[in-house]
């Protein structure tokens, strides 16, 4: 990409840095768009503006796509650190406002991320409740669809769900994203370390446990197979039947969390091929006319956790919010 040197004051926006980092991590504008749920052209424009503001080239042509320049690779770590620093600024500001909060009750409903593991557990909020002992935080775990219904009914003050929400009386903001992996039996043909990443075409050769949350999670997974032009063999698997399903050669989409070991202790977790990664965004949902300092503080707390998780992912480590 050809950069133009700035002639005046440059303005750098947080989303430009986030999209740049996402493109480096994902490998292309298209892959990054699936990660941050913004169109590929929008990401490319933001990165091009960032190049103009810096007066350097961050990406260069590579066939029909782009690859990071040496400088682009060198700037990745400082950019990630800058994003974290900016989030800490927001965090400190929210802490200041939260210090003055009076005793309050806050009802939160969180999606259990039904990929056969309770990935976002209530224990994640232990530190928040310790820091704010005057806040009575009531948490309920449910499916994605039930969380949204609870918000629509007015029963809860906020929700943490998978995927953005576009409704007039509800507003959502992305907190972070997490990649899906697949669980297979230790006796499976592809359990060997010789098989690193599994393509969707390979996965589709075996029975696949249908994601329980049809409204959101299943659609995302099904769309990934559709884009890969592969027809998956989804099978309905009842809770508790996962070990037998895996032993019979089945495959289960999971989040990389230690609780999967409780459900399928003899399973092997495999990554999906990089170009076909399935990434789910975690969003904070609230009502625009009912925002509060407490709600903002809680959202910032979750965003900070998301940044920590992102660093673990960039190092190729697993993600476990309770650790």
TrEMBL record:
Keywords of the record: DNA-binding, Transcription, Transcription regulation
HTH lysR-type domain sequence ranges: 12-69
Database matches in SUPFAM superfamilies: Periplasmic binding protein-like II, Winged helix' DNA-binding domain
PROSITE patterns: HTH_LYSR (PS50931)
Alphabetized CDD domains for the sequence: PBP2_LTTR_substrate
DNA-binding is among the record's keywords: yes
A GO CC term assigned to this protein in UniProt: protein-DNA complex
Pfam families, per database record: HTH_1, LysR_substrate
Domain of life: Bacteria
GO molecular function, one term: DNA-binding transcription factor activity
Family classification: Belongs to the LysR transcriptional regulatory family.
Designated name of the protein: LysR family transcriptional regulator
Native species: Slackia equolifaciens
């Amino acid at each position: 990409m050809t950069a133009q040197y700035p002639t005046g004051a440059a303005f750098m926006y947080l989303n430009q840095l986030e999209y740049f980092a996402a493109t480096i991590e994902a490998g292309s504008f298209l892959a990054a768009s699936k990660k941050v749920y913004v169109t590929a052209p929008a990401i490319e424009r933001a990165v091009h503006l960032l190049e103009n503001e810096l007066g350097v080239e961050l990406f260069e042509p590579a066939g029909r796509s782009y690859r990071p320049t040496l400088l682009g690779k060198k700037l990745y770590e400082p950019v990630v650190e800058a994003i974290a620093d900016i989030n800490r600024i927001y965090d400190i500001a929210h802490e200041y406002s939260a210090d003055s909060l009076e005793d309050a009750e806050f009802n939160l409903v969180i999606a259990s991320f039904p990929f056969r593991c309770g990935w976002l557990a209530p224990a994640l909020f232990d530190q928040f409740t310790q820091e704010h002992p005057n806040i009575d935080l009531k948490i309920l775990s449910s499916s994605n669809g039930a969380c949204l219904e609870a918000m629509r009914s007015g029963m809860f003050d906020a929700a943490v769900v998978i995927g953005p929400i576009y409704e007039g009386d509800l507003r959502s903001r992305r907190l972070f994203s997490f990649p899906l992996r697949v669980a297979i039996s230790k006796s499976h043909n592809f359990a060997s370390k010789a098989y690193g990443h599994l393509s969707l075409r390979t996965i589709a050769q075996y029975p696949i446990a249908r994601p329980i949350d049809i409204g959101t999670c299943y659609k995302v997974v099904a769309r990934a197979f559709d884009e890969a032009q592969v027809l998956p063999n989804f099978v309905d698997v009842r809770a508790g039947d996962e070990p037998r399903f895996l032993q019979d050669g089945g495959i289960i989409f999971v989040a990389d969390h230690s609780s999967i070991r409780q459900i399928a202790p003899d399973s092997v977790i495999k990554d999906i091929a990089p170009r076909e990664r399935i990434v789910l965004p975690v969003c904070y949902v609230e009502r625009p006319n009912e925002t509060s300092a407490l709600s903002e503080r809680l959202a910032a707390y979750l965003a900070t956790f998301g940044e920590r998780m992102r660093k673990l992912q960039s190092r190729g480590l697993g993600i476990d919010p309770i650790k």
